[in-house]
Structures are given as C-alpha cells and as structure tokens.
Amino acid sequence: MTSYIRVCDIEKYYGTGSHVTKAIDRLSFTVGKGEFTGIMGSSGSGKTTLLNLLATIDRVTSGHIYYENTDITALSEDALSEFRKQNLGFVFQEYNLLDTLTIEENITLALTLQGGTKKDIQKTCDRLLKLLHIEEIREKFPYQVSGGQKQRCACARALANDPVLLLADEPTGALDSFSSRTLLETFTDLNRSLGATILMVTHDAFSASYCSRILFLRDGKIFHELIRGEKPRRLFLQEILDVLSLTGGELSDAQ
Q1: CA torsion sign, 137 to 140 to 141 to 147?
Q2: Domain locations in the chain?
Q3: Which CATH class is domain 3-247?
Q4: Disulfide engineering: 202 pairs with which of 2, 59, 175, 207, CB 3.0-4.6 Å?
C-alpha cells in the first residue's frame, strides 16, 4: 500500500516556562492511501492533538508531517489554508451545519465555495445526497432531521471538495447506536467504493472496530497497533477491548 501520510518524529508542547506539557512525544508512523485508520487512547493521551496537527489546525513543535511529497510543517499560513481547502475533509461530533439552510443548501454552499458552474454544483450535490442516503431529506432543515442524518449531511459536505483525506473527530459521539452503526457503515462504503483515506479519532471500541488498523496512544506515544486483516469485526472488537482493558482506556460496550 502506497504511503500517503508520513509522520516523522513529531513533538508538540503546550505552555511556557515551568508549565510546559508535552502532548505528543517523538511520534512516527505512516498512513497508506485508501486506509481506514483509527486513533484511540484515553483522555489526555494526545489523540485530538494529533488529529489537529494532521488537520493543519495546529502546528508541530518539532518534526515533520508529509502528505506525499508536501511537508505541511514547512508551509506558510496562506499555503496551509489552501492545502486544507484542496485536500482535506472534516467531520466533527457537533455537525457544524447552518440551521437556516436546508440539508441540500448546506451541501451546495460547501460546493459553491469550491467554485464551478451551477449545473456542476447541482450534479455533485445530487450525487452526494444519493451516496450518503439522504436524498429524501434534502428539503428539510437540520432541526427537522435526526442526529445520524445531520452527520451524514456533514459527511456529504466534507466530501464536497473530493478530499484525499477525510478526518473524523469522535463522529459518533452524539449519536445513538443505530445512527452510529449507519454512519460507520457509510464510512466503510466510502473507504471501499471510493478508496477514501479516512483517519478517525475515537474512544469508542465499537466505532474503532470498523477501521482496518488502529493506533493506540498513551502519553503522546504509540504503544500498540492492531490490524484487522481478514478478521470478522466482532473478533476485532474483542481485540480492541482487550487492549483497552490493559491500559485503563475508556471502554464502550459492544453495540
């Protein structure tokens, strides 16, 4: 598998003087193109910090992060903004939809910001609505639909720029078990049918069991890795729970 992301010996410190916290401690790993990778760890393990660094929302203190041949740690703020717009899609726990726009308008707004003709924007929007199975709610407003439907709209919006990497931060955190399963199956479909590279931060073992590979963080370091391979998801879930039980990680029951 071709490496798309290379994280090379990165560190991240917060604070000054005697109040310095090391959030990421000389971390190195790669993510292959088309891989569905999960990042797990208890609170304070560094998983959200790592996602923010990969998402170009925050900058490393030292080390390098490469997206193919682009060293994002060397880019200016303007270049980072352009890189983010052209290459990354984001799905967060809070949905971040505009309540005054319909589901369809939330998606077309994201497409309009990317440029293109009105006809092309509508064609892409129709494709995304169908892909995420939310065609029937296109005219509804966010407050009129379920949390799972909102999150699938957020996914459609994240895919608007045809990103090479989809970053998800606790995407099932606000969802019930049925909506969580539906969203995770959607991620799996995107990964398999579109070859989408997905990086998901989660503390939830059930969500993580949909990934093809999981990196476990503790004190800003990777201390364990699991690869699903051809294992059934339920067996992979048990392996995840076994690792978490050894680390005092946050456990979530199988759903």
Answers
A1: negative
A2: 3-247
A3: alpha beta
A4: 207
